[in-house]
Amino acid sequence: MSLAPSPSTAMKTPRGKLPFSIVTIVVLCFALIALLYADSARSLFKSKSCARRHVNRKRKDRNAEKDEFKNFAVDDRFEFDPEECTVNTGKWVFNKSMNPLYTDKSCPYLDMQVSCVKNGRQDSDYRHWEWQPDDCTLPRFNPKVALKKLQGKRLMFVGDSLQRGQWQSFVCLVEGIIPEDKKSLKRGRFHSVFKAKEYDATIEFYWAPFLVESNSDQPIIADAKKRILKVDSVEKHAKNWGGKDILVFNSYVWWMSGLRLKTLWGSFANGAEGYEEFDTPVAYRMGLKTWANWVDSNINPNKTRVFFTTMSPTHTRSADWNKPNGTKCFNETRPVLKKHHWGSGSDKRMMSVVGSVVGKMKVPVTFINITQLSEYRIDAHSSIYTEAGGKLLTEDQKADPLHHADCIHWCLPGVPDTWNQILLAHL
Fold it and tell me: Given this model, what pLDDT does residue 44 score?
């Protein structure tokens, strides 16, 4: 039996042609390869796109971290706490959007001495610097809050012309929200009273430049060598301080008229024969002890809060801020930005006298510590935009700033508004 296939059952493959099944397999293989390639390409592009998004996300995260750090650095200060906040350590920050609550044209109660814009000052940047303590946020002065805190109370500022400036500042900060028929001001030689009638409140000033009695209280003796202080006598002034709810004292610049001061015990009738000369810090300690004894003997701390405004610096020596060719504070338009700047116009010996005397008192006294923050503000004094002897400076006087620029008193609005901002935060 032959094993060869018969012609009827055997199929012959035509030459030059592949069987259908092989073609199909090849095509399917190519299709599969193409599909895998396409998927691979898609996933390659997708991974690149994801990588870009991932990088962007990382960048955003890093930026967010930076912003968070910035916010942390700016907002790290705690809310004001009078027991914790070191108000006198900080910096002045320029804030153009911060407008004063009053101007020397809108407030009718300002003296010519401090009305700098009225008196011709053209620059205005000095009104837009904001004090920022390093460790806390100092609340803005709010007139409504101030008047609410003063409702039914009497606030009195006691001291010299710088304290009168702080008084005028406080009055101007609140008077704008009081209707015309609900407020009044009565000025006196020693005692001036602003009344906020609907709040049953008074904001008063009492003139006592040394706190203790002197022969220059009224009328003022211009020649400092002829002034005599009664360092053991305060009652003439102090009899006007009783019955107040808040007393704010200051006394510094009048003591700095010389290296030694004529001091007297007993009556002025003894005249020139009765005085002795003491170094200024010694006489200052005597006078402050007399004041402190009166406070301890006459003030009930449950009824009356007592404050003491530390010394207001003078800026009469431009070499203090590295301008040896300058003319005192004349033409200064920016604060000193150097941290801890301290000039020759603030006597640390006198400051330590206040600290030691107050530290031994029975009645608690709160310091309004304004010396360091005011030290920076060489730009904010009255300078030539002021008056002398009740008259505005003449053009000839303005042309001679060395002899006529006032680098003791402050323009209003200005630095004393910050002093009152601190005072209000403590009330």
Answer: 38
CA distance 23 to 278: 123
pTM above 0.85, yes or no: no
Q: How far is CA 101 from the centre of its chain?
A: 15
Q: Which of 135, 161, 232, 341 is catalytic?
A: 161
Residues recorded for the chain: 427
In whole angstroms, how far apart are CA 270 and each of 223, 255, 287? 20, 22, 19
Please confirm, yes or no, whether 312 is among the known catalytic residues.
no
Higher per-residue confidence, 63 vs 403: 403
CA distance 342 to 375: 6
Side by side, the strands of the sheet bearing 154-159 are: 183-186, 191-196, 201-207, 154-159, 246-249, 305-309, 365-368
Furthest CA-CA distance within the chain? 169
Q: What is the pLDDT of residues 383-420, one digit of tens each?
A: 999 999 889 999 999 999 999 999 999 999 999 999 99
Confidence of residue 337 (pLDDT cuts 50, 70, 90): very high
Contact 316, 328 (CB under 8 A): yes
For residue 380, the model assigns a pLDDT of: 98
Closest to 165 measured CA to CA, from 374, 425, 317, 320: 374
Residue 209 CA: distances (Å) to CA of 34, 159, 162, 204, 285 = 100, 5, 9, 15, 15
SS3 248: strand
Residue 268, pLDDT > 90, answer no
Give residue 37's identity as a one-letter amino acid code.
Answer: Y
> Does residue 42 contact residue 48 with C-beta atoms inside 8 Å?
no
426 classed as catalytic:
no
Joined together, the tokens standing for residue 244 give 């107040």
Whole-angstrom CA distances from 98 to 79, 101, 127, 128, 419 are 20, 9, 8, 6, 17
What is the number of other CB atoms lying within 10 angstroms of the CB of residue 279?
13
Among the options 217, 379, 406, 417, which is catalytic? 406
Active site residue 128: no
